[in-house]
Design goal:
α2 packs antiparallel against α3. The protein is 26% helix and 36% strand. The chain contains three helices and seven strands.
């Protein structure tokens, strides 16, 4: 997540995740001993349509900074989800899930990548 700090993101750590935020977007990575993050999540807050657009714009840079591949395939799939409220696919060894939330305290859009190769400590406790 050091690459995010270099791009003027504000980063912090809680018990399970390191989070880097800029404006209405943020990236979260599950802290652990895995060779690569077991869970990597991108979020954009706001009304569903606006958040989905912000997430689609944010994803290419965030996935590049986090060294996630195949990022082109993930970004292309995310663009196809813009009018939907949820979707799920696989890309390389990642399970990729997209969802929007409305009517909650923090409405927005979320893209979550889960490493299918992870076998131990693969989620927050």
């Amino acid at each position: 997540m050091a690459a995010f700090t270099g791009r003027q993101y504000q980063c912090s750590t809680d018990e399970a995740y390191q989070t880097c935020t800029k404006g209405t977007t943020s990236a979260q990575v599950l802290i652990g001993t895995q060779p690569r993050p077991a869970v990597f999540s991108l979020q954009a807050t706001g009304a569903a349509a606006e958040a989905a657009a912000a997430l689609t714009e944010f994803a290419p840079e965030a996935l590049e900074l986090a060294h996630v591949n195949p990022r082109g395939q993930i970004v292309d799939w995310l663009k196809q989800q813009s009018s939907k409220t949820a979707g799920k696919t696989t890309a390389g060894s990642w399970t990729v899930e997209y969802s929007t939330e409305s009517g909650s305290e923090q409405p927005g859009a979320i893209l979550t990548l889960t490493d299918t190769l992870c076998k131990v400590d693969c989620g927050a406790e």
